[in-house]
Design brief:
CATH class of the largest domain: Alpha Beta
Strand content: 15-25%
Largest sheet: 7 strands, parallel
Bound molecules: ligand ME8
Number of strands: 19
Distance between the termini: 49 Å
Helix content: 40-55%
CATH superfamily of the largest domain: HUPs
């Protein structure tokens, strides 16, 4: 096991002032698929997620509900965990930032930065939106009913003037520029990386890392009258989860998040890591933002889709397929339930299930125990395998799924052209019938292996229906590559079964 490469992927740690919505589940679904792909592909995987608790908005929410802050946070942490478990997200680590081990770790890195002169005392005066947990400039605000409010939350920001500690980000300007140059794929997609580079080029300002007035959070080790604010606390969660592991997962392979927090991950974070003596992340994958009926989805605006409710109503695979096969990661997207159902009906309920159903029914009618191993679509399948790996390595999940479904279309076309339902009827065509059926089964086998990273339960079912009962165990033992290359596969089809995927109606959407 020790000779295996590691793959460490993270989602943002989510705020707990409301339950996660479909937008949050997007980063988690991407991470889940990539983690699974790496796991079945001979890597030792770590996938961390969960909650960002030391925030002023949690304190406010707890007060609103008449709860003690910790009781409120326990409740919300359970809800978050319930959501990710309900979505069958297979994280390996969850982190609560109120845990003592996280506090201790963050204090140790703060001390390191302080000792090397990167943290200094100053005075701070600014507008602050607690719902964004971000500072605002006058220009950022919009006017509503004569009041200057945050455009996202429509609330007036607080005016803050206090003694703070600052991190010397300006000192790292050159370091960052060189780092970006030496790591041209650090931020994906590249247009977002260009924005990051342009931001740095305009000149970096030091930023405040602590609060005098907030009492809830991690106390600065060199001034216990202040707590650290947001980024020192939140970002270092990624390292807290690496403490005390026998396997070394740092530096992290991939941080996933939406564009709202890329600045903190791509600019602040590398500088903070450098300052405290840690290696930098390998890559950052940034997603776009979802809207719902063209309105920003926001916990604070309450127009949310609950991912668990939605996946119970329609299936998790419908959400995964819709999000991953429609969107080029990085694009903004308007979530559309009707479109999600149509995509699912076309690709999973029709294309994939039809093919499986055909091979099951026709093989049973043919009454042969074994099919002759003759794979007529081998060349196309080989090309697909190559593209599959390339696309996954560069996180092009839409292209990856598009290619698989294109291949399944080819297999469906092959069936139409070869008409196995005619071949099985004539004794002299028996061998041809077996070869055609083998080609369909093999096409499905290869597709299912590739789709396993996205739809593990159903692909497990599909492989089982083809008689490949040891496959999931072998996949979970990291054998994806061996299985993809396996030849002369022995399929064993014994039952017809119910539909793997059933269609949903769109009329009422
Ligand atoms: O920012 N569309 O937490 P957060 C797409 N705690 N993605 C969305 C989304 C939307 N409408 N809304 C949220 C925080 N997200 C900090 C992070 S990390 C060290 C600290 C997703 O609860 C997206 O991935 O506001 C975004 O980056 C993340 O949720 C922010 O979640």
């Amino acid at each position: 096991m020790s000779n295996k490469e590691t793959f460490f992927v993270t989602t943002p740690i989510y705020y707990t002032n409301w339950i996660p919505h479909i937008g949050h589940s997007y980063a988690s679904i991407i991470a889940d698929s990539l983690a699974r792909y790496n796991k079945i592909n001979w890597k030792k995987v770590k996938f961390s997620t969960w909650v960002d608790e030391n925030s002023q908005k949690a304190v406010i929410k707890a007060q609103e509900q008449g709860l003690d802050v910790m009781d409120y946070l326990d409740k919300m942490a359970d809800i978050h965990r319930w959501v990710w478990d309900g979505m069958k997200i297979e994280y390996t680590d969850f982190i609560r930032t109120t845990k003592p081990e996280h506090h201790e770790f963050v204090r140790s890195v703060l001390q390191k930065s302080f000792d090397n002169g990167d943290i200094y005392e100053g005075e701070y005066e600014w507008l602050y939106c607690v719902w964004c947990e971000a500072f605002k400039k006058e220009d950022d605000l919009i006017e509503v009913n004569g009041k200057k409010v945050c455009p996202d939350h429509l609330t007036e920001p607080d005016k803050i003037k206090e003694k703070n500690y600052f991190f010397k980000l300006s000192k790292y300007q050159k370091f960052l520029e060189e780092f970006y140059e030496n790591n041209p794929d650090f931020v994906t997609p590249s247009d977002r990386f260009n924005e990051v580079k342009a931001f740095v080029k305009r000149g970096l300002e030091d930023f405040s890392i602590s609060r005098e007035t907030n009492k809830f959070g991690i106390k600065l080790p060199f001034d216990e009258s202040q707590v650290t604010y947001v980024w020192y606390d939140a970002l270092f969660n990624y390292l807290t989860v690496c403490q005390g592991w026998d396997e070394n997962f740092w530096p992290v392979n991939l941080h996933i998040m939406a564009k709202d927090i890329v600045k903190f991950h791509a600019i602040y974070w590398p500088a903070m890591l450098k300052s405290s003596g840690y290696e930098l992340p390998k890559q950052i994958l940034t997603t776009g933002y979802f809207t719902l009926d063209w309105q920003k989805i926001s916990k604070s605006l309450w127009n949310v889709i609950d991912p668990v409710e939605f996946s119970e109503q329609y299936s998790k695979d419908l959400i995964v397929l819709y999000l991953l096969s429609s969107i080029n990661i990085g694009q903004d997207w308007d979530f559309n339930t009707k479109q999600a159902i149509l995509t699912y009906n076309a690709k999973l309920a029709n294309n994939l299930w039809n093919l499986l159903n055909r091979v099951l029914v026709l093989t049973l009618k043919l009454g042969e125990e074994e099919l002759i191993s003759w794979f007529e679509l081998e060349e196309k399948a080989d090309k697909l395998k190559e593209k599959f790996k390339k696309n996954l390595e560069k996180f092009a999940l839409k292209d990856c799924l598009d290619e698989i479904f294109k291949f399944l279309d080819e297999v469906n076309k092959y069936v139409d052209e070869n008409e196995p339902w005619k071949l099985i009827k004539a004794e002299e065509d028996r061998e041809d019938a077996q070869a055609v059926l083998y080609t369909i089964a093999e096409g499905l086998r290869i597709s299912a292996l590739m789709l396993y990273s996205f739809f593990p339960e159903k692909m497990w079912e599909l492989l089982t229906r083809l008689g490949l009962t040891d496959y999931v165990e072998r996949l979970e033992n990291w054998e994806l590559n061996n299985l993809l290359e396996e030849k002369e596969v022995v399929f064993k089809i014994t039952e017809k079964w119910n539909p793997l995927y059933t269609r949903f109606d769109v009329d009422d959407k």
